[in-house]
């Protein structure tokens, strides 16, 4: 198995959130967007994790206390490639592969990251990137392939013509690259776009034109790669994650009377045979025993512990 370093980009301002809180510190089911991404990377058995911070650096750094990550600062926010350059000297010299991903895509699963890095290991490809096909690709960079189906370019939406805008295969913003290819490509990225920023996506066309092998693999569930830029998108991702959590508990023998009015955050434990009535909210790190009864109209605070057979009604 090749050694991997992960670089998580978390320096953006997130102006479209219209919030004083840094974008990556907004929460999905009780955990910050950034923590969700870090946890998935850790579960994919990647030991070195570098987080690139920038806007409101102190707040983001404070949120990372207790997590096994290295932090580097992007002093000016000049684009995604510029953020990776800020981290490049911290990438382990023994790393064969660098996994790059965004800190605002909290639904990415460890299995998907393992699939991506596994294909990299098996094929010896210089770059493996994750793509998705979605009905409404607005806001995403588009994948351009050559006649043989190989990825030759990622076109940012702001730079795309009408023909490219009709492509529904989008860039998920997750890449596995050979360390040498990454460093080689970064050195040639220049701000040739309308925003005058250093786009990491440009590395694909740069390496393609050098004859490097570039493979795009499609994610099985496009919701995994949903990025968050607005409060509306945050609400959508929260609902998806809540539904995942509820489904998991029901499969393990927990009765949920009304999934539409029940909310359970991340890192909750619930024993078999427990019944949860409508309009109940269970906060993060709660531990609930077997055969308990919760609700209706119950709020279970974070860290609550309930013994087997306990009951909480409206609270």
Describe the overall structure.
- It contains eight helices and 21 strands.
- The protein is α/β, with parallel strands linked by helices.
- It has two domains: 4-225, Spore Coat Polysaccharide Biosynthesis Protein SpsA, Chain A (Alpha-Beta Complex), CATH 3.90.550.10; 252-312, Hexapeptide repeat proteins (UDP N-Acetylglucosamine Acyltransferase, domain 1).
- The strands form six sheets. The chain has a seven-stranded mixed beta sheet with strand order 5-4-1-6-10-7-11, sandwiched between helices. A four-stranded parallel beta sheet has the order 12-15-18-21, covered by helices on one side. Strands 13-16-19 form a three-stranded parallel beta sheet.
- Helix 6 (179-186) packs across helix 7.
Shape: elongated
CATH architecture of the largest domain, please? Alpha-Beta Complex
Uncertain residue ranges? none
Distance between the termini: 51 Å
- Structural class of the helices, strands and pairings? alpha/beta
Radius of gyration: 21 Å
Name of the CATH first level of the largest domain: Alpha Beta
Integer count of domains: 2
Question: How many DSSP E strands?
Answer: 21
**Total of DSSP H or I helical runs spanning 4+ residues:** 8
Major sheet characteristics:
7 strands, mixed
- How would you state the average pLDDT, rounded? 94
Give helix % range: 25-40%
CATH topology tier name of the largest domain: Spore Coat Polysaccharide Biosynthesis Protein SpsA, Chain A
Please name the fourth-level CATH homologous superfamily of the largest domain.
Answer: Spore Coat Polysaccharide Biosynthesis Protein SpsA, Chain A
- Helix and strand pattern: EEEHEHEHEHEEEHEHHEHEEEEEEEEEE
Q: What fraction of the residues are assigned to beta strands by DSSP?
A: 25-35%
Give the neighbour order of strands across the main sheet. 5-4-1-6-10-7-11
């Amino acid at each position: 198995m090749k050694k991997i370093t992960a670089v998580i980009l978390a320096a953006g301002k997130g102006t479209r959130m219209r919030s004083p809180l840094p974008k990556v510190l907004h929460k999905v089911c009780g955990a910050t967007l950034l923590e969700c991404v870090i946890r998935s990377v850790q579960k994919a058995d990647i030991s070195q994790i570098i987080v690139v911070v920038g806007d409101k650096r102190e707040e983001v750094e404070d949120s990372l206390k207790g997590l096994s990550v290295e932090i580097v600062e992007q002093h000016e926010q000049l684009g995604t490639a510029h953020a990776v350059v800020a981290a490049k000297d911290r990438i382990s010299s023994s790393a064969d592969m660098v996994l790059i991903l965004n800190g605002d895509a909290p639904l990415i699963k460890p299995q998907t990251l393992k699939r991506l890095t596994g294909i990299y290991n098996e094929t010896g490809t210089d770059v493996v990137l994750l793509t998705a096909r979605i009905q409404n690709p607005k806001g995403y960079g588009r994948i351009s392939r050559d006649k043989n189906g190989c990825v030759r370019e990622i076109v940012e939406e702001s730079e795309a013509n009408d023909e490219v805008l009709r492509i529904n295969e989008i860039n998920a913003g997750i890449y596995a690259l050979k360390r040498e290819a990454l460093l080689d490509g970064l050195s040639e990225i220049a701000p040739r776009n309308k925003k005058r920023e250093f786009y990491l996506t440009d590395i694909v066309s740069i390496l393609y034109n050098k004859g490097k092998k570039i493979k795009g693999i499609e994610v099985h569930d496009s919701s995994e790669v949903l990025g968050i830029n607005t409060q509306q998108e945050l609400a959508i991702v929260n609902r998806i994650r809540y539904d995942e959590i509820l489904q998991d508990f029901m499969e393990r023998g927990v009765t949920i009377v009304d999934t539409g009015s029940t909310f359970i955050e991340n890192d909750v434990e619930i024993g078999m045979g427990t019944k949860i009535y409508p309009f109940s909210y269970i906060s993060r790190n709660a531990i609930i025993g077997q055969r308990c009864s919760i609700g209706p109209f119950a709020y279970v605070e974070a860290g609550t512990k309930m013994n087997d057979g306990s009951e909480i009604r409206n609270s």
